[in-house]
Amino acid sequence: MSLSLLRHTPYLTSAVPLPIQYFFISLTKMPKTRLSTMRQDSGSEVGGVVPKNRVRKRSVEMIAKEVKTESPDQKFLRHPEIEDFANNSGNIYSQSIQPPANWERVIEGIRRMRSSEHAPVDSIDPDEGVTSLQPKERRFAVLVGSLLSSQTKGHVTHEANQRLLENGLLSADSMNKADEVTIKSLIYPVGFYTRKARHLKQVAKICVSKYDGDIPGTVDELLLLPGVGPKIAHLVMIMAWNKVEGICVDTHVHRVSNRLGWVSQPGKKQGTRSPEETRVSLQQWLPKEEWVSINLLLVGFGQTICTPLRPRCAKCTVSEFCPSAFKEISSPASTSRTLSPKKKH
């Protein structure tokens, strides 16, 4: 995941490029379709502790108003990763559904919980090292940070990006001229660093040859770049181009939306099966003014309260509106197996 989405994410006006470190935390997971192609890479260890220092808070509401919203591009459905889903679900963008009951009260409740508890997603200073970059370089840095952040903890991505910056490699031209071994050594230990180094070289070459050192300016063109899926494409459009063409959905947003009963498969009552299905389902009813703020809001909520394992439903102030509340608790059997002492032979 994370954008102006949060309570403090630093978004600027369209005249000034947007900060990039937001990406480095919200994109910690990728859809299985893309992850399965990466498993052969070596050296995908990720570790460390998220920094505890808070960065200054900024008004989400003020930032969100500055971001230009645009309706999704129908051509986006041609991307191979979601082509089958699009073909099976009909004209999904033309459909609309009734908003879930009490969704506004739920969002307001989550905002209050987020403001009172610090989440890992709040820990990276989004302005460090990038404010001095020229517009083209800054947009390229956004793209690089987004590619590095998948399957990688935020502080690890941030440090890798800083090493690239210190070595003058956060421009398409310099990255294109650098050798792959150098790039790989600088981004280590981000997840799948071998494959990402190759993707960065390929992306830099495309940006130099086709876009005069800049990055693509549409979702459809971004999706053609190596390593870029729907989630990264929409993040880059917001952070680099100050345009909102879709909701950014990671595993936290996907999980929380399904637990709240906010999303479903096209024509069915079952929950969505992937972040991409969740994105499309949310966009059918969530007002566009919420498309930016919903990501970081649910990412932080998913990190602190609505956690993947043993969610803290007793502490959640909107549990009365959640159909999944108090249903995901570890069984006594699993607890006893964990706590029971080993038998002596």
TrEMBL record:
<keyword id="KW-0227">DNA damage</keyword>
<dbReference type="GO" id="GO:0051539">
    <property type="term" value="F:4 iron, 4 sulfur cluster binding"/>
</dbReference>
<dbReference type="Pfam" id="PF00730">
    <property type="entry name" value="HhH-GPD"/>
</dbReference>
<comment type="function">
    <text>Bifunctional DNA N-glycosylase with associated apurinic/apyrimidinic (AP) lyase function that catalyzes the first step in base excision repair (BER), the primary repair pathway for the repair of oxidative DNA damage. The DNA N-glycosylase activity releases the damaged DNA base from DNA by cleaving the N-glycosidic bond, leaving an AP site. The AP lyase activity cleaves the phosphodiester bond 3' to the AP site by a beta-elimination. Primarily recognizes and repairs oxidative base damage of pyrimidines.</text>
</comment>
<feature type="domain" description="HhH-GPD">
    <location>
        <begin position="148"/>
        <end position="304"/>
    </location>
</feature>
<comment type="similarity">
    <text>Belongs to the Nth/MutY family.</text>
</comment>
<dbReference type="GO" id="GO:0006285">
    <property type="term" value="P:base-excision repair, AP site formation"/>
</dbReference>
<dbReference type="InterPro" id="IPR004035">
    <property type="entry name" value="Endouclease-III_FeS-bd_BS"/>
</dbReference>
<keyword id="KW-0234">DNA repair</keyword>
<dbReference type="GO" id="GO:0003677">
    <property type="term" value="F:DNA binding"/>
</dbReference>
<keyword id="KW-0408">Iron</keyword>
<dbReference type="InterPro" id="IPR011257">
    <property type="entry name" value="DNA_glycosylase"/>
</dbReference>
<dbReference type="GO" id="GO:0140078">
    <property type="term" value="F:class I DNA-(apurinic or apyrimidinic site) endonuclease activity"/>
</dbReference>
<dbReference type="Pfam" id="PF00633">
    <property type="entry name" value="HHH"/>
</dbReference>
<dbReference type="InterPro" id="IPR000445">
    <property type="entry name" value="HhH_motif"/>
</dbReference>
<dbReference type="GO" id="GO:0042644">
    <property type="term" value="C:chloroplast nucleoid"/>
</dbReference>
<keyword id="KW-0004">4Fe-4S</keyword>
<keyword id="KW-0456">Lyase</keyword>
<dbReference type="InterPro" id="IPR023170">
    <property type="entry name" value="HhH_base_excis_C"/>
</dbReference>
<dbReference type="GO" id="GO:0046872">
    <property type="term" value="F:metal ion binding"/>
</dbReference>
<dbReference type="GO" id="GO:0006289">
    <property type="term" value="P:nucleotide-excision repair"/>
</dbReference>
<keyword id="KW-0411">Iron-sulfur</keyword>
<dbReference type="GO" id="GO:0000703">
    <property type="term" value="F:oxidized pyrimidine nucleobase lesion DNA N-glycosylase activity"/>
</dbReference>
<keyword id="KW-0479">Metal-binding</keyword>
<keyword id="KW-0326">Glycosidase</keyword>
<dbReference type="InterPro" id="IPR003265">
    <property type="entry name" value="HhH-GPD_domain"/>
</dbReference>
<keyword id="KW-0809">Transit peptide</keyword>
<dbReference type="InterPro" id="IPR004036">
    <property type="entry name" value="Endonuclease-III-like_CS2"/>
</dbReference>
<dbReference type="InterPro" id="IPR030841">
    <property type="entry name" value="NTH1"/>
</dbReference>
<protein>
    <recommendedName>
        <fullName>Endonuclease III homolog</fullName>
        <ecNumber>3.2.2.-</ecNumber>
        <ecNumber>4.2.99.18</ecNumber>
    </recommendedName>
</protein>
<dbReference type="GO" id="GO:0005634">
    <property type="term" value="C:nucleus"/>
</dbReference>
<dbReference type="InterPro" id="IPR003651">
    <property type="entry name" value="Endonuclease3_FeS-loop_motif"/>
</dbReference>
<keyword id="KW-0378">Hydrolase</keyword>
